[in-house]
Amino acid sequence: MLAVPCDVGDRAEVDALVARIEAELGPVELLVNNAGVISVGPLPTQDVAEFEQALATQLWGLVNCTLAVLPGMRQRREGRIANVTSVGGKVSVPWLLPYSTAKFAAVGFSEGLRSELAGSGVRVTTVVPGLMRTGSYLAAFYRGDRPDREYALFAPLSSTPATTVGADRAARRIVEALRRGEPEVTLGLHAKLAARLAGVAPGLTAELLGATNWLLPEIGGTDRRRGSEIDSPLDRSRLLAFGRRAAAELNQQ
Q1: Among the listed residues 50, 77, 239, the one whose alpha carbon sits nearest the alpha carbon of residue 159
Q2: Is the pLDDT of residue 136 over 80?
Q3: What CA–CA distance (Å, rounded) separates 211 from 77?
Q4: What's the CA gap between 230 and 68, in Å, rounded?
Q5: 128 near 102, Cβ under 8 Å?
Q6: Is 205 exposed, middle or buried, given 0-12, 13-18 or 19+ CB atoms closer than 10 A?
């Protein structure tokens, strides 16, 4: 096992990482692009830096890692690549615009890559998760004059079994999809329904999301705080019990 910190948005760091892996462990046969960052808040609270960070991680991270391992895979005429995107790359929801922008780009890259590699022996699977129960609400960034309000909305949605998919279940499904060479796998009933609705009725989907945005509170300011830095009464409530457990198991704390 080899664990090396790397900024996937930096191509030089990625090339160095892959070179070290190949030198110490051998050719890369399987690549799972799973790095991500999320910033929660309405558009007036977001700045260009949030879009740049989201694109650097969730688009250029995929591109850099893929281009680093792809020549070897093509030469050997075998390999598997899984690009973990998001239902946010199928349906752009309020308060997550930098995230959704990057995820839409990631979906486009992943789908096009599979087509480009048809017949090469390298298969690409686009993974489209809905909300994941991983404790990620602690690692997310919250923008605005009162980041605790965004936290209070986002954290419960990312914690309950009724709205999320567990990491173990998701991992098993992704492994199965890679073995079969499936083109795409969507994780979670909510994600499947949202993606299908957006595909069949994009206008209606936009109207529904617009109504949702109208119900959300008005928030201004550009303060930026990570979830783990916010002291909220919710942290000790039963509402986040499953989220706390997942965060402890997956080292999000």
Answers
A1: 239
A2: yes
A3: 49
A4: 38
A5: no
A6: buried
Q: Give 202-210 contacts, CB < 8 A, sequence gap 24+.
A: 205/91, 209/91, 209/92, 209/93, 209/94
DSSP per-residue codes, 218-253 = P-----EEEGGG---GGGGSGGGHHHHHHHHHTT--
Active site residues: 99
Mean per-residue pLDDT for 19-38? 96
- How do residues 106-122 score in pLDDT, each as one tens digit? 999 999 999 999 999 99
What is the chain's length? 253
Other CB atoms within 10 A of residue 69 CB = 21
In sequence order, which ranges of the chain are alpha helices (DSSP H)?
A: 11-24, 48-58, 60-76, 97-116, 147-157, 167-180, 189-200, 202-215, 241-249
| Residues 113, 63: Cα–Cα separation, whole Å | 10
- For the record, the structure tokens of 82 come out as 């899984």
pLDDT tens for each residue of 171-180: 999 999 999 9
Closest-CA residue to 36 (of 123, 106, 92):
106
* Three-state DSSP class for residue 129: strand
Residue ranges and CATH numbers for the domains of the chain are: 11-249 (3.40.50.720)
